[in-house]
Amino acid sequence: MLLNKKPDKIFPFVVVLRQKNRKRVELLGLISAIIFLLILSIRMYEYPSSRIFNLLVFVSVSGMTIYQVRQFLKSKKLSMRPVYLVAALSLLLIPPVSGFLLFFLAMALLEKFALMPEEIGFGEKEIVISGLWPKKIRWSELNNVIWKDGIITIDYKNNNLLQRETDDDEEDDDYDATEEEFNDYCEEQLRKANMLSPNQ
User: Fold this and answer.
1) Where are the domains of the chain?
2) Cβ of 167: how many Cβ atoms within 10 Å?
């Protein structure tokens, strides 16, 4: 759910942040699936010898796309990666080979990175914000860290402020922690850091 308390020696608390661009990535995926279906329609007309194979792919991709559209309309998370991979494979295996297969392979790869959840791990020594280049923050750099009403706030001593909405749609709630547990943990880490800091 919003905040997971995991049995992890490095990060006892991990906050999963809400993804801002998920809907746009999903919508782009649905549009790409429709484009692929149009490509298949043209291929069935232009290459009668492979019409049966193209028809089978068309039916399977149509079914997957309809299911994903229904998920999208219900505001549920979806992944178009299976459609991208089927599209690329069919364009590779069913003559003639099309350059569009590179587009669908690239889309499958990009979707994986675009929909990867951003997380903030809170450990005793430091805080780490996930990403291609994870950002590390020492507790001694902060005035306060608080989680309240689905918003995580990190207040830096240099007057910078990070506020992000947490993801309340996570399905794994086995290790859910309360706001009070998390805030007490952060308060304790800040107290320890300030006691050790030479500037205090």
Assistant:
1) 3-19+117-196, 22-114
2) 19
Q: Which two tokens stand for residue 190?
A: 């800040």
Q: Which two tokens stand for residue 121?
A: 């791990």
**Phi, psi values for residue 116, rounded to 5°:** -70, 125
pLDDT (tens place) for every residue of the chain, 200 residues total: 334 444 445 788 888 888 778 888 999 999 999 999 999 898 888 888 888 888 999 999 999 999 999 999 988 888 899 999 999 998 888 878 788 889 999 999 888 888 888 889 999 889 999 877 889 999 999 999 999 988 999 999 998 999 998 876 645 555 577 888 999 999 999 998 888 665 54
**Those residues with Cβ within 8 angstroms of residue 96's Cβ, 6 or more apart along the chain or in another chain:** 47
In CATH, the number for domain 3-19+117-196 is: 2.30.29
User: How many residues are recorded in the chain?
Assistant: 200
According to DSSP, the β-strands at 3-5 and 126-129 are unpaired
Radius of gyration of the chain, Cα coordinates, nearest whole angstrom? 23
180's tokens: 């009070």
